[in-house]
Design a protein that fits this description.
116 residues; mainly beta; Beta-clip-like; three-stranded antiparallel β-sheet; 1 helix; 11% helix; globular; binds zinc ion; nucleus; methyltransferase; transcription coactivator activity; S-adenosyl-L-methionine
Length: 116
């Protein structure tokens, strides 16, 4: 285990509202989807895990674990990580149509060119 993605657990509908609010405030939005219904909002109450970037060839994986009936996101290494190496995981964004594509700049040999 490397770090837990901490934040406030909110319902998807609330997450959508908050995302629009944060964007209107020019804030960086940091959220992690747990499942269809819930999202961890790390924008205000998050820890350093929110700054981990996406990579198509990541050195970490994420998993949802249940601890005392509460869902938590745990980020773990999936291979040996060199000292000073940047941490990354696959954001696994849903696929979007061409108008809403986010380009990927991870630099991996197998880069998919798009994050979604
Ligand atoms: Zn990539």
């Amino acid at each position: 285990m490397v770090i837990e993605y901490i934040g406030t657990i909110i319902r998807s509908e609330v997450a959508n509202r908050k995302e629009r609010l944060y964007e209107s405030q020019n804030r960086g939005v940091y959220m992690f989807r747990i499942d269809n219904d819930f999202v961890i909002d790390a924008t205000i109450t998050g820890g350093p895990a929110r700054y981990i970037n996406h990579s198509c060839a990541p050195n970490c994986i994420t998993e949802v674990v249940t601890v005392e009936k509460e869902n938590k996101i745990i980020i773990s290494s999936c291979r040996r990580i060199q000292r000073g190496e940047e941490l990354s995981y696959d954001y696994k964004f849903d696929l979007e149509d061409d108008q809403h594509k986010i380009p990927c700049h991870c630099g991996a040999l197998n880069c998919r060119k798009w994050m979604n």
